[in-house]
Every structure is written in C-alpha cells, then in structure tokens.
C-alpha cells in the first residue's frame, strides 16, 4: 500500500513538472497532498495527516488558483 | 537567436538540479547507511510520564503545548508576521492587479471568485459552486472546532483545527450570495479576532509568572479538576488565531476587500 501511494505521488509530481497547463499542475499538487495525507495516516501520524490535508489540499490550492487567475491561459505567440 | 538563452537556461537548470540532488544525498545518506540506533531516551520518558505530567492523552499536544510551548509561541509569531506581510504586499499589489485585469477582462474569466467582485470578470461562476460551498461551510467549521477542542484527546490541536476553520471560512465566503450574509467572512472582524487571540495568548503565557510559575507554565497545575485545562485553553486561542489569520489572508487574496 505504501509503495503504491509513493509511486502515485512520484507520478503526479512528474506530471506537475511537465504539464503545460498551470491549473492541471495545481490540481495534481493538491492530489499529491491528499495522497500524502493518506500515507501519513497509514504510518500512524494522524496529526500530520490532518495538517497536510487542510494546508496542502485546501489553503495552498486556494493561493495557487488565486495566482493563476492573474495569468493568461494561452502562450503569447 | 531567441532560442539560445532559453537553452542555456535549461542547461543551468539541469546542472543546478543535479547539484542539489547530490547535496541532498550527501546530507541524508550517512543517516541511512550508518548503523547507529535512534536515540530513545526522550521517547521512553514521554511514553511513561507525558500524559501524567501534562494531562493530555495526545502526546503531540503534550509536547507542543506543554514541554515545548515556547516554540509554539514562536510559530504563532511567525504566522502573524507572514499574514501581516502578505496583507502589506497585497494592498500595494492589489491596485496593479486590478488595472491589469480591467485591461484584458476577456482573459480573466474564472469560476473561482467571490461575489463582491464585478460579475463581468467571473462569468464562469456557477450555482453549483455557490450551493455546495455554502452548505458545506458550516459543517467544515464544526469539524474544525471539534479538532481544536479535542486536541488533547484525539489527533489534532490548535493549528490543525485553525486551518480547517480557515477552510470553512473560505467556503462560507465562496458560497455567500451577497456581502452581508454573515459576519465571520468580513475581513475587519477576522483581523480583530486574530489580534485579540494573540493578545490573549500573551496574557495567558505570562499568567504563570504572576502565580509563581515559569513563563508559559500551567498556572493551575495538573492537580485541578481538568488536568489538561491549560492545554485546552491554549488550543482554543491558537485555533482562533490561526483560523482567523489564514481565513483573513485567503479572503483578501480572493478579492473581497
């Protein structure tokens, strides 16, 4: 289970780096946070899991989406 | 000709990332390769005495509000400075960003905006968002207060509960159809809650000195009716401060001034 979660996190991380659309990258980041929260819970650290789920999937996604609102969706050329 | 600096930038990026990986390996690998056992003194001490000395069954709370409460005070100050700095930058940058988005309004369409803004700039905002976040907000708030109040017994505590409360506040703000539906999403009220909570935290932490104990010491002692009373009080204060601070930051960022 731990290995599956780690592989998924790695795959989503690579997708975040290579994806051209910023919004897709942010959603992948928030999915990484959810998966790591699950991982922390499996590894008997529920306090960290709550923090990771609330900060990673909630607040930081809001901040990233707020920033993306002020960018343009398409490249200039 | 235009492409050349782009390629050089990529090469520098590659070299830097390889270099940072090597540095991380140098820092981390000795810990794994070396066979020395982890130190267990503090762990064993906390396992036997932690719950009795602090009154909290959740040992994480016992550590960060009992044994290491001074660090927690520092963390709340860091958060206060971060929120203050963000608001300071936003009030300067807000005017610039507003000019930008009014110049090219056809590009700034987003489903993620608050009702206080001009509707033209967020034409993709749907009723789905309003309904779901408005109904979900109070439930999330309730869960946040549960995590905050029961931090000494179950996983959680002031910081975790505060962040969940902040998410609930943002949900309520996204779901409200007008500006005046509830007071908890108004920035001036949130900023006052945060300032008041910080003042309370300072007063509570020096209350131990007045009763002949140390700074941030439990003034009631663990022999009172509720042994974890001091930890519950600190959890409530920190939760209010974190929730109001982060909620305030997010609401100002999302454009509700």
Question: What would you say this structure looks like, in words?
Answer:
- The complex is a heterodimer of chains A (77) and B (257).
- By secondary structure, chain A is an all-alpha fold.
- Chain A has one domain.
- Chain A is built from 3 helices and no strands.
- In chain A, helix 1 runs antiparallel to helix 2 and helix 2 packs antiparallel against helix 3.
- The longest helix of chain A has 24 residues.
- By secondary structure, chain B is mainly α.
- Chain B has 2 domains: 36 residues; 217 residues, no CATH class.
- Helix content of chain B is 70%, strand content 0%.
- Chain B has 8 helices and no strands.
- The two termini of chain B are 46 Å apart.
- Classes of the chains: A mainly alpha (77), B mainly alpha (257).
- The interface between A and B is medium-sized, with 17 and 26 residues.
Task: Give a quick set of tags describing it.
heterodimer; A: 77 residues; mainly alpha; 3 helices; 0% strand; flat; B: 257 residues; 2 domains; 8 helices; 70% helix
pLDDT < 50 runs, ≥5 residues of chain B: 104-112, 115-121
Please trace the helix and strand order of chain A, writing H or E for each element.
HHH
Structural class of chain A: mainly alpha
Largest sheet, strands/sense/barrel of chain A? none
- Quantity of strands of chain A, as a count: 0
Concise description?
In chain A, 81% of the residues lie in helices and 0% in strands.
Which helices and strands, and how do they pair?
The complex is a heterodimer of chains A (77) and B (257).
Chain A: H1 2-18, H2 22-42, H3 46-69
Chain B: H1 3-33, H2 41-54, H3 59-67, H4 69-103, H5 127-149, H6 158-175, H7 187-210, H8 229-253
């Amino acid at each position: 289970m731990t290995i599956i979660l780690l592989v998924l996190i790695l795959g989503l991380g690579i997708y975040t780096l290579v994806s051209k659309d910023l919004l897709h990258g942010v959603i992948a980041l928030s999915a990484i946070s959810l998966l790591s929260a699950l991982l922390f819970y499996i590894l008997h650290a529920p306090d960290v899991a709550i923090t990771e789920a609330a900060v990673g999937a909630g607040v930081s996604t809001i901040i990233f989406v707020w920033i993306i609102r002020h960018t343009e969706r398409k490249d200039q050329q | 000709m235009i492409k050349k600096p782009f390629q050089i930038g990529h090469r520098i990026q590659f070299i830097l990332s390889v270099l940072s990986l090597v540095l991380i390996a140098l820092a981390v690998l000795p810990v794994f390769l070396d066979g020395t056992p982890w130190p267990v003194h503090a762990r064993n001490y906390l396992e036997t005495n932690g719950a009795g000395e602090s009154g909290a069954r959740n040992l994480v709370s016992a550590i960060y509000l009992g044994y290491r409460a001074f660090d927690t005070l520092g963390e709340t100050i860091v958060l206060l400075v971060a929120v203050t700095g963000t608001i300071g930058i936003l009030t300067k940058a807000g005017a610039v960003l507003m000019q930008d988005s009014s110049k090219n309004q056809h590009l700034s369409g987003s489903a993620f905006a608050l009702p206080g803004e001009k509707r033209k700039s967020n034409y993709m905002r749907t009723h789905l968002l309003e309904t779901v976040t408005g109904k979900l907000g109070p439930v999330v708030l309730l869960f946040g207060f549960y995590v905050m109040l029961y931090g000494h017994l179950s996983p959680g505590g002031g910081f975790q509960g505060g962040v969940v409360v902040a998410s609930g506040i943002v949900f309520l703000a996204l779901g409200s159809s007008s500006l005046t539906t509830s007071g908890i999403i108004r920035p001036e009220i949130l900023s006052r809650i945060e300032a008041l909570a910080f003042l309370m935290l300072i007063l509570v932490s020096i209350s131990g000195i007045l009763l002949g104990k140390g700074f941030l010491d439990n003034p009631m002692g663990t022999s009172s009716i509720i042994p974890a009373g001091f930890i519950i009080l600190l959890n409530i204060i920190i939760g209010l401060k974190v929730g109001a601070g982060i909620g305030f930051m997010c609401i100002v960022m999302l454009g509700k001034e």
